C-alpha cells in the first residue's frame, strides 16, 4: 500500500501556481506533515491526494488504498446526538453491535482526552472538543489513508501538544497519515515534512523559514 505523487503542480483559474515539480511516496507506518505559509496549497494538496481535486500537472497513484478518512479544519456533527454516538457510528456502519462497538469508541475518545464528554450533545462541545471528536471518529473508521487539515487550529497549547503526539503515533496502526499544518509542534511530531514553499515557482517564493522535506 502506498500513495505517490509524480510531478504534481496546481493552480486555480486566474491565480499563480501554488506548487510544482512535487514528487513523493508515502507508505504505511509514516506520518507526513504538509507545511508552508498560508495560501501555499496545503489543503489543496490533501484534496488532490484524496482524488477530490485534479492537479493541473502530474498524477497521484494510490495502491491498496480502499478507505480514505478526512478530518476537516471545521468540525461538523449532528447537534442533538452525543459525542459517543459520533465516534461509534463508523463501527456500527461496519456491522458491529453497539455493545461491542462502544468500548472501542471510548478507547478512541480517550486517545484525545475526551472520555469525560461521551454523553454530551455535539452542540454542547467547544470548538476544540469537537475537533478532537472528529479525530477520534476518524481513528474508529480505520482508513488506509488519513488526511487531517490543521488539527490544532482551535486547541490550546497543552491540548494541541497532546493531539500532535497522538497523530505522530497513528501511523503505527497501519495507516498512511498526512497532516496539513502550520503548527511547529505538530510538524515535529511527524516523521517526515514536506514544505510546499520549496515547490513554489521562483517568482512566488516567500520569506518563510524553510521546513524542508526530511526524516525526523
Automatic annotation (TrEMBL):
SMART domains: AAA (SM00382)
InterPro entries: AAA+_ATPase (IPR003593), ABC_transporter-like_ATP-bd (IPR003439), ABC_transporter-like_CS (IPR017871), ABC_transporter_ATP-bind (IPR050166), P-loop_NTPase (IPR027417)
UniProt key word NAD: no
Molecular function GO labels: ATP binding; ATP hydrolysis activity
Keyword field contains Hydrolase: yes
Domain of life, per lineage: Bacteria
Major enzyme class: hydrolase
Keywords: ATP-binding, Hydrolase, Nucleotide-binding, Transport
PROSITE patterns on file: ABC_TRANSPORTER_1 (PS00211), ABC_TRANSPORTER_2 (PS50893)
EC number: 3.6.3.30
Domain ABC transporter: start-end pairs: 3-215
PANTHER family reported for this sequence: ALIPHATIC SULFONATES IMPORT ATP-BINDING PROTEIN SSUB 2, TAURINE IMPORT ATP-BINDING PROTEIN-RELATED
Protein name, per record: Lipo protein-releasing system ATP-binding protein
Species the sequence originates in: Bifidobacterium pullorum subsp. saeculare DSM 6531 = LMG 14934
Amino acid at each position: 500500500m502506498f500513495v505517490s505523487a509524480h510531478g504534481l503542480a496546481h493552480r486555480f483559474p486566474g491565480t499563480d501556481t501554488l506548487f510544482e515539480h512535487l514528487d513523493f511516496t508515502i507508505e504505511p507506518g509514516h506520518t507526513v506533515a504538509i507545511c508552508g505559509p498560508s495560501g501555499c496549497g496545503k489543503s489543496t494538496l490533501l484534496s488532490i491526494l484524496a482524488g477530490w481535486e485534479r492537479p493541473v500537472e502530474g498524477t497521484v497513484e494510490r495502491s491498496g488504498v480502499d478507505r480514505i478518512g478526512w478530518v476537516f479544519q471545521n468540525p461538523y456533527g449532528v447537534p442533538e446526538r452525543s459525542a459517543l454516538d459520533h465516534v461509534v457510528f463508523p463501527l456500527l456502519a461496519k456491522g458491529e453491535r453497539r455493545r461491542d462497538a462502544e468500548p472501542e469508541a471510548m478507547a478512541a475518545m480517550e486517545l484525545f482526552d475526551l472520555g469525560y464528554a461521551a454523553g454530551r450533545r455535539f452542540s454542547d462541545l467547544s470548538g476544540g472538543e469537537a475537533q478532537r471528536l472528529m479525530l477520534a471518529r476518524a481513528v474508529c473508521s480505520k482508513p488506509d489513508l488519513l488526511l487531517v487539515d490543521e488539527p490544532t487550529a482551535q486547541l490550546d497549547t497543552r491540548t494541541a501538544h497532546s493531539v500532535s503526539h497522538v497523530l505522530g503515533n497513528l501511523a503505527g496502526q497501519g495507516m498512511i497519515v498526512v497532516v496539513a499544518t502550520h503548527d511547529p509542534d505538530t510538524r515535529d511530531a511527524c516523521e517526515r515534512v514536506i514544505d510546499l514553499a520549496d515547490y513554489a515557482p521562483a517568482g512566488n517564493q516567500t520569506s518563510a523559514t524553510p521546513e524542508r522535506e526530511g526524516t525526523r
